[in-house]
Automatic annotation (TrEMBL):
Protein's name in the database: Phosphopantothenoylcysteine decarboxylase
GO MF annotation: an example: catalytic activity
GO biological process, one term: coenzyme A biosynthetic process
InterPro entries attached to this UniProt entry: CoaB-like_sf, DNA/pantothenate-metab_flavo_C
Lineage top rank: taxon: Bacteria
Domain called DNA/pantothenate metabolism flavoprotein C-terminal: residue spans: 2-209
Organism taxonomic ancestry: Bacteria, Pseudomonadati, Bacteroidota, Cytophagia, Cytophagales
């Protein structure tokens, strides 16, 4: 089985020294790469900038990228040959419209940045998904969690969506634990307890493997 996994944040440059980014650490995505590799899969981990070392497992190949465009290009290369796609990255939705060649100098009291929309990696690849391929997405929500997560499942052609609610203590960015609910395209819902991210990754891998046997 071949798995394509995106993880970590993306950094969108403003000038040679500054970028727009987010607080994703990549821990959940890296834990998933380890859990898929432990189940016998060959994993391509496409990672935005993180402080984590490349996983040492021989069946994990790590590709380092910075921006959403670079992450998309790397993912699009791998996607056709992968059986399972997992989109765990916190991709920046927008990037600066222009990247200044020189460092932007301080001038007026206010500074307005123009941002343009980035490619939606999961949704764009979702349009190319074949019936036997299986796509897993993440949804980090603060309100109307299930409704929003199921909207993403439909829009991005996911077979399974991993819902994180920021209302749950110990879930989401920066923690070593996570609390997730899995929502499947067939309406199935599984609620898990708060656990270390490695245990959450194991649960997600088991859920994917059990569905793959009946999928397409
Ligand atoms: N995603 C992606 N490319 C993007 C944005 C999101 O591949 N440009 C993927 C994420 O990796 C995740 C899922 O889509 O699996 C949902 O991400 P999220 O940021 O919650 O969704 P958005 O569509 O950006 O919705 P929102 O308006 O809530 O930010």
């Amino acid at each position: 089985m071949r798995v394509l996994l995106t993880a970590g944040p993306t950094y969108e440059p403003l000038d040679p020294v500054r970028f727009i980014g987010n607080r994703s650490t990549g821990k959940m995505g890296y834990a998933l790469a380890e859990a898929f590799a432990a189940s016998g899969a060959d994993v391509t981990l496409i990672s935005g900038p993180t402080n984590l070392p490349d996983p040492a497992h021989p069946h994990i190949r790590t590709v380092r990228v910075q921006t959403a465009d670079e992450m998309y290009a790397a993912a699009a290369t791998e996607a056709p040959a992968a059986d399972v796609w997992v989109f765990a990255a916190a991709v920046a939705d927008y990037r600066p419209a222009t990247v200044a060649r020189e460092k932007i100098k301080k001038s007026g009291y206010t500074l307005t940045l123009e941002l343009v929309k980035n490619v939606d990696i999961a949704a764009t690849l979702g349009k190319t998904k074949r019936p036997e391929q299986f796509s897993v997405g993440f949804a980090l929500e603060t309100e109307q969690e299930e409704e929003h997560a199921l909207g993403k499942l439909r829009r991005k052609n996911f077979d399974l969506v991993v819902l994180n609610s920021l209302r749950d203590a110990g879930a989401g960015f920066g923690h070593d634990t996570n609390k997730v609910t899995l929502l499947a395209a067939n309406g199935q819902k599984t609620i898990f307890e708060l656990k270390p991210k490695a245990a959450v990754a194991h649960d997600i891998v088991q859920a994917v493997l059990s569905r793959l046997t009946t999928h397409a």
